[in-house]
Structure formats: C-alpha cells, structure tokens
C-alpha cells in the first residue's frame, strides 16, 4: 500500500511540474514552492523524468542559485545535457554560482562549442580560471582541487588576521577544508594553519609562529591513485596543490578524493558488468540500446571465436554427444574461478599490496589455489559426468578438462589486471571478456582433445 | 629495471624485519627506525607478508601509539587477526589508543572470547562505552559515529568558551568534524556551533545567540543508505546522533559515510565476481581455497541444473550437432545482457532514482531495449549460424533463441536486484548466479525446443 501511495504522489508531482513548465506564465513562485516540498532524491527522480527541453526550461526559470540547488541533486550526465540545452547567458549565470571544481568538471564535460559559448559570457578572469582548471584531467589533483582557499600573508599576526576574517566573515562560509594557507610574496606556500589553532592562539603571535612550516604539498598532475595513497598515509583533511615554482594553486580535500574513489569503485563494478557509459533508464530507448550494444557486439565476436574450437571438433562431439551437456558448465565455471582471481588482484592493486610487475608472485599464489580448487571442482563434475554417461572415462575427460582449465583460469585471471594496468587499459572493463574468451577456448580444447584421444573408451 | 630494484629492496626490508622479530633482544629502536623509513603502503606490504605470530610480536614490541600507526596501514581482516593473537593486556593498551569508532569496529570484529578478554583489561567505563558502540551494526549511524565530540553548555558565552578551549587546547586536536554541539541539562542537544563562527563572533555573545538552533540530528539506527542520502541532500561535514530522548550520543562525519560507501561499492564489485570473503594472497592456501570454493560450489550446482535442459534434448542435439557450437554463445551472451540490466538497476537504486517496488517501470524500460538488442544480436548470430550450417533454418533457430533470451535476460536482470533487496539478500552477491542459471535454462530450452519443432528442416 505504502509503495503505491508514494508512486501516486510522484506521478502527481511530475504532472504538476510539467504543467507549470508548459504554461506561458513564467511565474517562478509555484515552481520554487513545489521544489521546496521535495527532498534531494525526490527532486532528482522528478527532474530526471522530464524531457530534456523541460529540464532546461526549469533551469531557465529558476534563479541561478535555485538552479544550482536542483543540479546538485542530479546525476552528472543529466546536468551536462540540461546545461548544454540552455542559452549560453543563462548557463553562464548558473556556472558562475558553482564552486570552482564543479565549474571545471561541468565545462570540461560539455561539448566544446557549448563550453566556449558559456565561457564567452563570463568575465574574462573567471573564464580563464575555469578553462585552466578544466584543462586538467578529472581524476588528478588539478581536476579535483578547489581554488577557494584562505591564503594569508606570512607577515600577518593572529590579531590582524582575526580582524580581517571578522570583517569579511562570509569568505570562510563555504570552505570545505578547515585550513588556511600561509604564503610569502608571489603566493609561494610557506605554511599551513589550522583554523582551530587560530582560535586558541595568543593574539599577539605571528602566523609564522603558529603555522606548520614546510607543509606537505603535491603537484597538480598527481593522479587519483597517489592521492588515495596520500590520504591513506596522512590524516589531513586536505592538501595544498602547488605549481613547479611552489606557488599555491588550490587545495584537494580528503572529501573530494573519497568521493572520486567511490565513484571509481562503483564505476569499476558497472563496467565489469558491461555498462560502459552512464546509462539512466530515463534516457531515450535508442540511445540506451546503442550504449549497451557497443559492449555486447565485442562480446559476441569473442564468443564466436571461442566457439570455433567446438566447431573444429564437431566430429568427436557427434560421437560423444553427452559431452555437449558439459561444455557450457566447463566454460562458465572457469569464468567464475578466473574472475575471483581478477577481483583479488584488483583489490590488492588498489590497496597497494601488489605492484603491476609482480606477476610471478601472483602465479605462485594462484597456482596453489588453482590446483586445489581444480581438483575439487574437477572431481565433483567428473563424478556427475561419469554417472550421467555411465562411463568412467567420461568422468575423466570432463573432470580433467575442468581441473586443467581452473588452473589456467586463475593463473590468467590473476595477471590480466596487472597486464592491462601496465598497458594503460581499464582492467575493470576489459578483464572479464578477455579472460572468458581465452578460458572458453582452452576449456573446449581440453575437453574435446581429451575426448578425441580417448574416443575408443567413450563410445 | 626500476621494478626489480623495488622488489629487492622489499625483500631486504622483509628479511630485516623478520630477523629483528626473531632475535631475543627485544630492543625497539631498530624496529621503529626500520618502520620509520617506510611509507604506509610499504609498511602494509611488509607486515602482511609476515606470519601471524610475527605480526603479533611486532605489535607487542612497539609502544601502543606506534602499534596503532602500523595497524592504520593494514587491511581490516589483518588487523583483527593480529590483535586476536596478542595477550589481552597488550591488545587492551592498543585498543585504548584508537579513536572510538575504530575501537568499536575492532572489538565487534574480534571473536567474542578475545573481545571479552580485551574489554576486561580496560577501565570499566571505557569498556562499557566500547561494548555499547560495538553493539550497533557496523553500517548504521551508531556503528559509524565517533563519540569524541565537543559538547558545550547552552549557558556559556563565547568568551568563557574560548577560555576553556584555550586551556584544554588538545581536546580539539583530533576532531574530524569542525562543529561543536550545544547541549542543555542532561546532554540534550539544542544547537550546533561551527568552530569558524566562534572564531569571528563577538566575545560577549552567548552560544545560544550564535548557534544554529534546532539542528538536524539522526537516530543511532539510521542505516548507511539513508546516511548517504542525508549527506547528498545536505552539505554538512557531520551530523549529530541522538537517542530517543534527544540526548547527544556522538557525531557521524561525512568522511566516515564516504569511506563506508566506498567500501560498500568496492565490496559490491568483488562479491559480484565471487569473492565472498576478504581474501589477501598472504593468507594460507587452504583458507583461500576454501573461501573461493564456498561460492564456486554453489555455482557448479546451479550450472548442472541448467545443463540438465541440454541433457533432456540430447536426441535433438545428436541430429543437429552444429547446435552444440552455439549453445555456449547463447548462454554467455544472455548473461552479458542480463548483467547490464542488473548493473543499471543497482546504480539507480543507489542514486535513489528507483524504488524496490517499481518492477513495472523497469519492465517497460527494459522491454524496449531488450527487444531491440535481441533483434540485433539474434540477427547477427543467426546469420553466422545459417552460414556455418549452410541452412537458413539453423539461423532462425539460433537467432530466434538468442533474441527471445536477450529479452528474458534484461527483464529478469532488471528486477532481480529489486527483488533481492526487498528480500534482504545482498544483490551484488546473488544477482549474477541467479540470473545466469535462469537464462541458461531458458536459452537452452528455446534453442533446443525450436530445433525439435523444426527438426525436419534442419537435417
């Protein structure tokens, strides 16, 4: 009952929203009132269901501040598409309201013509700053940093600093990280100041006395992996980003790194299951179909290649037709065993417990487990096959093939992520198809060549 | 070259560490010196490679503070096992040094006898507090909260507060969240104070004047999903946790929620690939083999069930042996299509764009994509099959079976995570085996029953 009520409410909300957006009367109050009654997830659900023109119309009618609040609730792909649909001046007013790292992400994700049009509507210095930030890859320090930083001169005292902060109190409002940075002439970073230390310090102290001197800092090119390792090793809430001359560029917060790491992890999961692009079910059918087919068509090709091994042994198979029952099992089980080894390698890589060069260590560790599990699984399936065919040799062929193939699968699965990582290919996306193609071929080959060898015992 | 050098260094470090731990001389300086030369990941790699007795010996020799630094670098499963191996008094000294949420996680994860022994060594009030915290499930507000909170009385002024903070300055040191909480008599929560507001406030103000009154708070039972949604909707760095009477229990930081969400996402990924427990390659072979077999043995059973469909049609198959080449392809491709639908549902569930009750919406959206992709993939494979067998009916059987099965797979894959979620079963772990078993059976059945129907056209 409850679920149905919720569904009705949502249908009503969506209908009301659409009616408001279709009416010529552009009064904004009913819209803000309706949106104000929804929480973040309800807003996201309603807005995602709107056609893209109406999403843009909604953003156009709201104030830029209110539009940003709506955008904050939406998946990134929806944000980009809706903003691209807006007139450049409206989009620019919204971009102006975003924090610096979100500005750069959005502009970087838009198609280049739309992005250029938006930048042209912004003040020159803001446009330049955004374009510079957007030029960094999204998953490195430059792409994750915020440029909203409290930078204080090294010659100040606690008292003058507090007076200045009190005068411009709002500047502290939206800071994600609770540090201020002490800079020398030319914005060269010389120290870090925790705001809480400012709170408890003697007012006559100089900042250079209470700051942490020679602070850790990172270059803008630092990749996400190293940022994760950095925050694993240090308990800071943020780390300053500097250029080649040691000048303060911005700050990467632990929060931004955590969020990027989570996004990477969930997207690893999705890509390992063949969702290559960020699909939402509210997208048009043809587009969703095409997104999925890009992955499926590679897979069907690989599958045909693997199955060609069976075709080569059709003669054997027609003499020992019972084998056809067990070929899909051998193929699927080897895939399962190999994927476990893939997942353990992915985990050890991300924990820093394994380096891409250590394939020998992986082989030693996987070899023993693969041998054991091959014996157990091969033994099990062998017994089933022998009973089914009423022929012990059938058990030996099927069980032997699965045992061999389990060993091959874990050896291969353990090192595939290492090899892909070294080659710069995304292991989450490519490991599984690569693995199952090879293990399918190897499994079919083991079973059918063993059967050919023992043909007189089997028929 | 570089990789080899690194490997040699690490072997040397490990050897030196083992030699130090084996020597009777319990001098701690060489140990701390060696560990001091390693960063977090190097420490983790070296310690994980040690046998468990030596891991415990290392922790025993270090000061509790230094032991905590080592533990911070290790995967959770290693921490728990090493601490369980310690004498209770040594373990208690280490637990005493941990932040409150880590204390509770560790005690909660240890086996109950070892946990009780450690608690018995701690002061009564600390033991009681830890036991209370450990009683909360790990992924709810109570399990994620820290009890280190700055709680200020509502009758204080800014000046008296600053004086008290300056007197006990260290109390602020290790706070994760930059809020203080204002409480009335009986620790009842009445307001939230941002430390930065304290910094810029007039010293004569009362805390009640500058605090945010009637702050948002959450009960200790709030599950992780709702915490993620809460921090999605609000930009706070933390949220206070209260009991049924509104008394302040602790604070859940955005950081703790982000980290738990990331852990959940990576563990979803691993479990979807059949890594049920937290395996590390440094664990003993038999244990790793057993961990993996628990998942594999369920899968082999399901595979045998699915393959029984082929066995039932052995007669048809022996007349149309070419079909045996295509059965594994149909099985694998349907699994791929279905897993895409699983992953999209998992994503929409976690974004809050889909509720577990909305299977009808999923079916409508998946039906259209499944129909289209079924046509494309079935058409492709049908052409291959017709060419291979030199018989257009063969193409119709194989292509038709894949088309039907693609539709079935996405309809099923789209709703399986919803059904499992409602049933309280982990969708990441169970979706894929469930899906592929049903789609295998359905695919084999479609292909073989179609072939039986059209047998006179095929031979």
TrEMBL record, chains A, B:
It is found in: Cell membrane; Membrane. Its main location: membrane. InterPro entries: CBS_dom (IPR000644), CBS_dom_sf (IPR046342), Mg_transptr_MgtE_intracell_dom (IPR006668), MgtE_N_sf (IPR038076), MgtE_transporter (IPR006669), SLC41_membr_dom (IPR006667), SLC41_membr_dom_sf (IPR036739). The keyword Transit peptide does not apply. The chain crosses the membrane at residues 293-313, 367-390, 396-420, 432-455. The keyword Magnesium applies. It holds the Pfam family MgtE. GO terms for molecular function: magnesium ion transmembrane transporter activity; metal ion binding. GO terms for cellular component: plasma membrane. Residues 211-267 form the CBS domain. Belongs to the SLC41A transporter family. PANTHER family: MAGNESIUM TRANSPORTER MGTE, SLC41A_MGTE INTEGRAL MEMBRANE DOMAIN-CONTAINING PROTEIN. NCBIfam families: mgtE. Acts as a magnesium transporter. Homodimer. This is Magnesium transporter MgtE. It comes from Botrimarina mediterranea. The gene is mgtE.
